[in-house]
Amino acid sequence: MIKSFFEEHLHSDEEIRLILEGSGYFDVRDTDDRWVRVLVERGDLLVLPAGSYHRFTCCSKNYIKACRLFCGEPVWKPYPRGEESDKMTARAEYLKQMTAAA
Q1: pTM of the entire structure?
Q2: What are phi and psi of 35, to 5 degrees?
Q3: Per-domain boundaries in the chain
Q4: Are 91 and 83 in contact (CB under 8 A)?
Q5: What is the fold of 2-101?
Q6: pLDDT tens figures, 48-98
């Protein structure tokens, strides 16, 4: 299942993860579309905005246990990077926020 998380994707809702055990890497895109690697370990809380492209992989220990937190109704569906996801409202809102922050 971990291999499916390595495909670059976005969600229409925030992704909030609490790392319970183990460690791994979230790769997220910066404003210049370059990868930024974030190490997450036990006790870390990571919030990825809706519409942000990201992926996940384990580290050399090959073990992680995480809890995904939701506000309201859970939204699990990943949208692989491509023409469809680039046109999503969540992506447009995310890009607007990133441009305003720059």
Answers
A1: 0.88
A2: -75, 140
A3: 2-101
A4: no
A5: Jelly Rolls (2.60.120)
A6: 999 999 999 988 888 999 999 988 888 889 999 999 999 999 999 999 999
